[in-house]
Structures are given as C-alpha cells and as structure tokens.
Predict the structure of LacI family transcriptional regulator.
Amino acid sequence: MKTKKVTFTDIAKYTGFSKTTISRYFNDPDSLTLENQQKIAEALENLDYKENKVGRILASGRTEFVGVIIPNLYMHYYSEMLNQILSTYEKYGYKFLVFAGNEKADVERKYIEELMAYNIEGMIVLSPTIPSEELASYHVPVVGIEREDQYISSVNTDNYMGGVQAASLLRKSGCDILIHVNGNIPDSAPASGRIRGVVDVCEEYNVPYELILRHLGNSFEENREKIKEVIDLLEQKYPDQKKGIFMPNDTHANVLLNLLFQRYGRLPETYQIIGFDNSPISREAVIPTSTVGQQISVIANEAMKILSEQMEERKKRRPEPLKEPVHKVIPPILIRRETTA
C-alpha cells in the first residue's frame, strides 16, 4: 500500500500551528522562535515528512544549486578537485551544476548566463579566464580556487612555499641545473608564486636555473608535442648535466616521464622530475612521481565552507554581506617518490 504523503495541513494539525507558520519554517525559519522551530522539526521526524523539493523551490526561489566553472576535465587536478567539491554535498546539502569552459571567455559567459537562469545561489570558479571583478558583478557569492581573486573570496595553495619545496628537493638531489616549466602567467595568478619560490632558492644557493614559461596546450596531443620540444631543448643545451625539472602539474609531469621512457626505455640518471598537485596520476604513473601536494580535499571543503556561509547569510531577514572577500591559503605538502633521489 502507498504511504500517504504528509502535507503542510497534516503538520499544522499535529503541531497546533497554522499552515502559514509551517510555511515560514521552511522559507523563513529565522522568523520563528527556536522553541517553535524545534517543535516543527520534531513533528517532521515523527510524521516521516518527505520534502517536495520542486514545491519548495517554487515557493522560496532558493534552488540550493551551486554553479562550478572549471577549465577542463583533462587535467587530473581539475577532475580530482571536482570530485572533492561534489563530495561536499553530504556536509553542506548543496547540489552542483558543472561547466567546463576550456579557457574561452565567450563560452564561459554563456555558461554563467545559463547558471544564473537556474537561479544558482553561488559559484565556485577554477577557470582563470573571466576577471574576478566581472564575476563579482553577478551579485551571487563566488569563491575562486587557484585563480586571480581581487574581488572575490578564494582558497589557494601557498604556491610560493610549493616552489621553495620543489626547488629545495631538486637541489638536494644533486641536480646541476634546475628547470621550472610553467605558463607565462601574470603576477596576479597564485601559481606565479611557484616561479618566485624557485628563483629565490636558486639565487640563494647559487644553483643554475632556467625558466621555461610557455603555454603547453589544453589537450594530450598539444601537451605531448610541447613537452617533447622542451625535452629536445634540454638535450641540446644540457646533454650531460643532471637536470632537475619542476613541472606545473602532475599531468604534465606524467607526460614528460612517458616521453622519456619512450625515448630511453627508462628514466635517465640525468633527469629528476617533480610535479605539482598530488592528483592520482602522480601515484599511478609508470614510476610514482614526486610532487608538491596540494591538499585538494581540504581546499574543496574550505571553498564550500566559505561559499555556504555567504549563501546562508543571504537567507537571513537582515543579511550582513561581506565587507571584504575572504582569502584562505592552504600549505602544500612535499611528497617524495621515485623520480627524485
């Protein structure tokens, strides 16, 4: 037999409150005393009430949807970060609408318009394409992860410390020259801190170094070709020197490792490799790869915590918006594996 669906009328009869009061419990709980909220909450449990989500959305305009904009799902860091963001549903109760923008501003703006049409309550943005000032203009809470963040809240790794850790490990591994491969990124991007960290260590200890700052593409095919060019350059300039290579992420470190294996059948003694992020590919590579570990699960949870607090504040009768964006910095953890001495 079908179980009878519990209605607001049933809850009102059970508690002795009016249907208006019951409605306020769902749509404006702050307007009720804590005692009355508790009475209604107990009634819902006793009556085994199952909420009509669509009805609540129509009544309150609150969707409990969060939009997520990521650059792509090819990079293992982004796919793992998305996995960790989605897992916060159990803790915060928000659902996610996800778009991959592939670093195309016009495409990402269309995606954001689509998200706003779904009446999202907030956004998490990993893509660096759209300036934070523009993101703030949408008037919903926004938290950025590893991107320019002047006008929005953010959670970032301490990239400078990550650069120091990577360069220090390669220096102690006896490398003759340190190579840092990264994009030609602006100072406003958190990842620029890695470059400063490498340079400071090398200059402090008089270690020769080279920065190779170029875009490595957005697909495996582009990555493979660009990183092969990097190997050819290093073979030509430093053929017999022990090269310590700090790659911008674990995906690119894995491509470099695979290319060296295809060329030599092994990792040559003249190469030491360290990646950045500690996504699963670093552990699953043909040789487990040393990496500067971003605490991805911590970053995802902190981003959702900051966003949730802002979204919940907006639901109060007298909300107090943030006067300044909140910026949280998470320390990296150096993980030594088999690609460094």
